């Protein structure tokens, strides 16, 4: 197994590094002073309540919106991502929640849509061979690459969308709620797929609302709250309660954030909550979520 322990991963240079990244929409501060690192062969879950800024962060990385401030370093270079084409050329692939598949087209056609092999005519055989190779690499359970995407299950459709994003040989893949619409069995299939991506050395950012899914596959989890970092945790050090507290704001203080980022909370006391955190900063989770939407 090629998965590295989180400690070793964190000592290597990250593939993606965001520092001080901010984004406003008019008067709304969607993101403020965001930091995020993701390493090769690492799955980082990005979690947070509605309105926390997850989609905005993804849109900055995928070239949909420019950031107002801060730096993005990718593969060792400071980069400016002006457009989705820029993102893809850099090696950042995003699988958006709507998947953007064409239901009436086959699996092969969807995989190669817009980048058909051979300049003057479609090389059908080669595309089919490559499709199978790609799907095998992902241990994907697709019955045939010549059937319409409409006849596939939700999990299989997610697989096709992920496979398509891999054709550009990205270094970072961003998955927006990959299991949101799926049942138990299909969720397991997609989570296996995320593990294949990690084994293949990709850096993965996975947005999810499902703490079970997050805990099943992530090496680290980055919590956003009201557009700010609210803790980055190693998955093995953090409990579900602590994660939910960070999402809802019950551990909303600088001490907690620092301890979580440096891993200092692992020694002794409750993981993710430093023993020196003042009691008055511990608010009940319920009813503290004044700023988020819905
Ligand atoms: N295009 C936009 N125009 C104006 N406000 C936006 C836009 N996109 C997001 N926002 C606002 O930015 C904040 C963060 O939103 P978003 O990134 O969608 O959060 P999340 O994906 O975590 O639910 C919210 O207050 C949202 O209303
Ligand atoms: Mg969103």
TrEMBL record:
InterPro entries membership: AAA+_ATPase (IPR003593), ABC_carbohydrate_import_ATPase (IPR050107), ABC_transporter-like_ATP-bd (IPR003439), P-loop_NTPase (IPR027417)
Region feature Disordered, mapped onto this chain: 258-294
Keywords, in A-Z order: ATP-binding, Nucleotide-binding
A single GO molecular function term of this UniProt record: ATP binding
Entry keyword ATP-binding: yes
A Pfam family that the UniProt record links to this protein: ABC_tran
PROSITE patterns listed in its UniProt record: ABC_TRANSPORTER_2 (PS50893)
Family matches, as SUPFAM superfamilies: P-loop containing nucleoside triphosphate hydrolases (SSF52540)
Domain ABC transporter: 16-251
Record-linked PANTHER family: CARBOHYDRATE TRANSPORT ATP-BINDING PROTEIN MG119-RELATED (PTHR43790), SUGAR ABC TRANSPORTER ATP-BINDING PROTEIN (PTHR43790:SF8)
Protein name stated in the entry: ATP-binding cassette domain-containing protein
Species for this entry: Arthrobacter hankyongi
Lineage: Bacteria, Bacillati, Actinomycetota, Actinomycetes, Micrococcales
């Amino acid at each position: 197994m090629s998965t590295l322990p989180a400690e070793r991963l964190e000592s290597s240079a990250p593939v993606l590094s965001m520092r001080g990244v901010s984004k406003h929409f008019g008067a709304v501060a969607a993101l403020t002073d965001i930091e995020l690192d993701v390493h090769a062969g690492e799955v980082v879950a990005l979690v947070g309540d509605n309105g926390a800024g997850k989609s905005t962060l993804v849109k900055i990385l995928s070239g949909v919106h420019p950031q107002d401030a801060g730096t993005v370093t990718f593969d060792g270079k400071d980069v400016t991502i002006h457009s989705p084409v820029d993102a893809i050329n850099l090696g950042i692939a995003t699988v958006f929640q709507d998947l953007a598949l064409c239901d009436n087209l086959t699996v092969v056609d969807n995989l190669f849509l817009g980048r058909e092999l051979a300049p003057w005519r479609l090389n059908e055989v080669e595309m089919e061979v490559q499709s199978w190779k790609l799907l095998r690499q992902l241990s994907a359970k697709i019955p045939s690459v010549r059937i319409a995407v409409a006849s596939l299950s939700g999990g299989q459709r997610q697989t096709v969308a992920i496979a398509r994003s891999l054709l550009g040989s990205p270094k970072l893949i961003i998955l927006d709620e990959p299991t949101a619409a799926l049942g138990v069995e299909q969720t397991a299939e997609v989570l296996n797929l995320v593990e294949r991506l990690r084994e293949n050395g990709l850096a993965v950012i996975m947005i999810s609302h499902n703490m079970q899914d997050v805990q099943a596959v992530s090496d680290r989890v980055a919590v956003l709250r009201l557009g700010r970092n609210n803790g980055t945790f190693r998955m093995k050090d953090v409990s579900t309660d602590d994660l939910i507290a960070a999402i809802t704001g019950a551990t909303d203080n600088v001490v907690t954030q620092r301890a979580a980022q440096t891993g200092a909370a692992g020694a002794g006391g409750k993981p993710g909550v430093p023993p020196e955190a003042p009691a008055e900063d511990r608010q009940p989770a319920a009813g503290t979520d004044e700023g988020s939407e819905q």
